[in-house]
Amino acid sequence: MNTGILENEQQGERVVVRTKRGYELKIAIILGTRPEIIKMSPVIRECERRGIEYYILHTGQHYSYEMDRIFFEQLKLPAAKYNLDVGSGLHGAQTGKMLAGIEQILMQDTPDVVLVQGDTNTVLAGALAASKLHIRIGHVEAGLRSFDRTMPEEINRIMADHISDYLFAPTETSKQYMLSEGIPEERIFVTGNTVVDAVYQNLEISKQTTNPLKDMGLQEKGYFLTTVHRAENTDNKDRLSGILDGFRQVYDEFHLPIIFPAHPRTAKMIHEFNLPIPQGVHITDPVGYLEFLQLESGARLILTDSGGLQEEACILGVPCVTLRDNTERPETVQLDGNIIVGASKNVIASLKQMMHAGNGWQNPYGDGAASRIMIEKLVTI
Ligand code: UD1
Ligand code: UDP
Fold this sequence. Notes:
Number of domains: 2
Bound molecules: uridine-diphosphate-N-acetylglucosamine, uridine-5'-diphosphate
Number of helices: 16
Low-confidence stretches: 1-14
């Protein structure tokens, strides 16, 4: 089998993986938030499987146990070699602290390639720090566009795409967006999304090790699942109360429980705005990935403003109602697995439409080999 690795040399304890051109390959994986840990986990596993030298640099953007450590434990990931512990803060201060911290580490422990995933402040800081040190950058999940520049994520992903050397696009649509912005085609590789790898690698493990439906007294397809955390929804009282009012109507109509593992940001803002929780809505702390995967696949329908949930719903064949005004995951809408409703007080009509959507669509995000294809690219370039 052609693994793309030409030579593995034993140097004391260390295995040196050489690329086709004979370079040693050392990768720094920079991550900082819940979805980055989950979506980078298959990339980390692929580096382990191939014996590639790599380290994890955690910015500490997420730090609460249920937003961070639980995923390292459940997914059996090695601990981060470095953790900057930047914590929360205003965008400039948070990104600035990360930039300075990442720069220091990249200068001391210099990799050949930095990998970043997605569109968070961690991604912007990681890519910017690497580009100033002339270290090659691979952007995992490149080329997503909501065309809404008021979203911090839109700015982060555009910036990261334009300074990266390897653009790992999940779909042909993402590739086209980048081409239309003048990004050279030879930098772009359509790989699928590592979220599919993560779902496929963990769903069975999840079923063998946890039973959240039983623990929560839920029936298969007998509940709705929701998450809300996008800044434009949580930090705006009208939108957040509109979303909760929509949930009230959904419960009045269907009498199915609405399970709501709340991001700390959302829990904080519901409390600050003093918003009542409608009957039928069950707010919990965020849950681990193994439990959450089963909550998703068992749900009658998912209501969310999360990017990852729109993808996972589509992969698991669960209809999705997106509580945003736009999406950077248009594929899910085009195949009738997702509908965009905003934070409207009236989600009922769209939700009813999606209840009858069926689930026969083909997942557009690949077959679970994205991380293997990416690492293969890096060792053969
Ligand atoms: C960030 C990303 C967003 C991503 C989300 C994944 C940016 C600009 N936003 O948003 O794209 O979808 O992560 O979940 O990078 N908090 C805690 N504990 C934590 C983390 C956060 O209590 O471990 C609370 C703090 O009150 C904090 C707030 O959540 O101020 C927001 O955290 P932050 O990382 O700034 O943004 P997210 O909303 O998590
Ligand atoms: N997730 C989880 N537990 C939860 C909520 C979400 O494990 O209580 C997972 C979910 O399966 C997905 C990821 O977190 O893989 C999505 O993260 P989030 O919604 O915070 O960020 P986004 O994808 O919007 O950037």
